[in-house]
Amino acid sequence: MLFDRGPLRQLLDELTKLPGIGRKSAERLAMHLLRAPEQDVHALAAAMLEVKEKMQLCEVCFDLTETQPCAICVDADRRADVICVVEQPQDVAVLESAGAFDGRYHVLHGALSPLDNFGPDELRIAELLARVDAGGIAEVILATNPNRQGEATAAYLADLLADRAVEVTRIAHGVPVGSDLEYADSVTLKLSLQGRQKVKTGD
User: Which pLDDT belongs to residue 179?
Assistant: First the structure.
């Protein structure tokens, strides 16, 4: 078979290590690389190496960055007294694209998952507590994902922060704007009701 030996087998083995890439997808990618112009393949390899060499974790918030600290952490126009806690660097990118948050971030690099042996020591929790204990933080927003692991992580962090002089809030979850109630699952509807807000009425 074509992919059972030699360089193609080695390439296939490496490609299947990528998340979401099974054997069939790896075979398609391998064939694409074989058909692509040599300069395109070199450009891809160079880009991958450059990212690996230049990108690092911010020493303050642990987001991905090329500089220390990252641009958000040194931005004087952003609120330094509000920290938004997220699971992964891509969550920072999503929130930034929304343009609705003007504070700082803290990236945990995961969520609590006992079944996967992923506990508090594997997350950047100690560093978050150190930032809060250093003073100057008025609010910590828990913006972990609305799934079992994310909710467990948010509850764990809320307990740790309960005795500290900081307001702890959780982002609201519920029915997406533009969708219909009939298509929402029971968990989403429950969160929507729990996160309901008072409606301002006219005089």
Answer: 73
